[in-house]
Structure formats: C-alpha cells, structure tokens
Amino acid sequence: MQRFILTREESIHTLLSFIAVRLSLSRKKAKRLLDNRRVFVNKKRTWIASYQLKEGDSVEVHEEGQMSSPSQRSAILFQDNHYLIISKPAHIATNGPKSLECELRVSLQNNHIQAVHRLDKDTSGAVIFALNKGAFEQMKALFKKNLVKKAYRVIVRGAVGKKTFTLDAPVRGQKAITHVTLLKGGKGASLLEVSTATGRTHQIRIHLAAAGHPVAGEMEYDRTPLERRLMRQIPRQMLHAYLLSFEHPYTRETISITAPAPADFDRCLKLLGLEEPIPARN
C-alpha cells in the first residue's frame, strides 16, 4: 500500500494523472488500478479517473491486497454422467470468454459443458455445470421452481445485532428475498450465513449494503469511508457460495455439496477475529 497527501501544487491533478505521475506508471496501468477498485481517496473507494483532487486529500493505492493469496485452482466437488459441481476460485468468470466453463470444456474435452447458474467473477464457491443439453434443461427447471437450495458464507462490515432476519426490498424493481443468520459477531465485522428465495443479480450484495452491513471488500454498492485500514486491504468481496442441495433429476438422490472456503476468505476471518465457530452443515 502507498499513501500520499496532496500538496497545493499537486491539487491540479485528476486522480488518474496523479496516480500515473506519483507511481511512474503509464496512464493505461494507472487506469487499471482504478478499474480494479484499488484506490481510495480519504478512505473512500474511488474509481472515477476524472475525479478532481484537492489539497490535503489522502490517496491510498493498494496494488496487492494484504489478504491476497496465490491463485487457487478449481476443484471438482461432485461428478457423474450428467453434472459437475465445481469449487470456483475467485477472479474467474463462470461462463463467457476466458471463463471456468471454457477451461472445463478444454480440460474434459467436452464442448457441451454448460454452467447452469452463475457466480460473480470475484465470488468463490460451488457452481453446477451440465455435461449435455438435456441435463442442462433438467437442472434449469429445478432452479426455476426454486428447488435448488443455496447457502453462502459472507463477511460483512459492522456488528450485526440480530441473530436471524430477512431482507425483502425489491432489487431493480423485482421481488427479492434474502434470509440472514448471524454465525459470529465482532466489533467491526460479522460472519453471516445467507440464503436467497429469489435469484436477482447481485441480490445479496445489494441487500446487505442497503441494510448497513456491506460485504467486506465490496467494490460497487458501498461508497462509505473505510476507517479500518484492514478493510481497505481486502482484495475482493468476501462472499462464498458454501452449500448446494437438490434432488438429482435423474437418480432422485438428494445431492448436498459443501465447498470449503478459499484461503483468502479464511485469512480474512482470522484477521478479523471471526474464525468460523460452527462445523459445516450437510
């Protein structure tokens, strides 16, 4: 982390030009830091290149998060003739170009592999992939009927006062329901288990931010100052898709899969004094 206090002479700069000059970077590389949400102005995450700085402003640049860990490989949690359940690392898209879906198609030599649902690029955890079109349609039908149980482990800012509660504010005009359970509370952060009765894009992140407990590492829905330096060093949103459970469309067996939290999530728990207090559920 590098921190600068703006002098009167430097206050002529926009945020982009200041970062480029002070870190001796090209404008392209400086813009990448902004795009990756690694810059704070007066403890607020700021990514507007044209942001006009003022004398006395504090600018922090976090090129590498304190809690970063080496890239983790995806791991197979379940596999049969119809489905794969993969533990997706953070920092890779579920599908699309250069995605986990593409990697699986190449490594397993099967161009029919298709993600049935998605996680955000910077969210880790369990994802279901179908091995053929029929399996995809069968599993998609379960999702549409809300017959796939999903649970997430989430580290949020602030002390959560309630043991259980439900958030039901609409998300982008659509009905959205999020159920929350407090697993462990701390002075400045809390560990939650969250499940959703609806599947709106970014629903958990939007609901928790609106409730005053944004996900630690949130880079889009929280613009409040991060007073604790530790919170400014978290390199991604601490949201992990922990549990998937459903009745297999072909075998009728109950499949219940848990994805172990990745190293950066566990390290964040430790640094915030939130080591998981209960065993994983089956």
Automatic annotation (TrEMBL):
RNA-binding S4 domain ranges (all copies): 14-75
Q: Which GO terms describe its molecular function?
A: RNA binding; rRNA pseudouridine synthase activity
Q: Record keywords: RNA-binding included?
A: yes
Keyword line:
Isomerase, RNA-binding
Its GO biological process annotations read: enzyme-directed rRNA pseudouridine synthesis
Q: Which family does it belong to?
A: Belongs to the pseudouridine synthase RluA family.
Note the PANTHER family from the entry: MITOCHONDRIAL RNA PSEUDOURIDINE SYNTHASE, RIBOSOMAL LARGE SUBUNIT PSEUDOURIDINE SYNTHASE D
Protein name (database record): Pseudouridine synthase
What is the protein's species of origin? Candidatus Brocadia fulgida
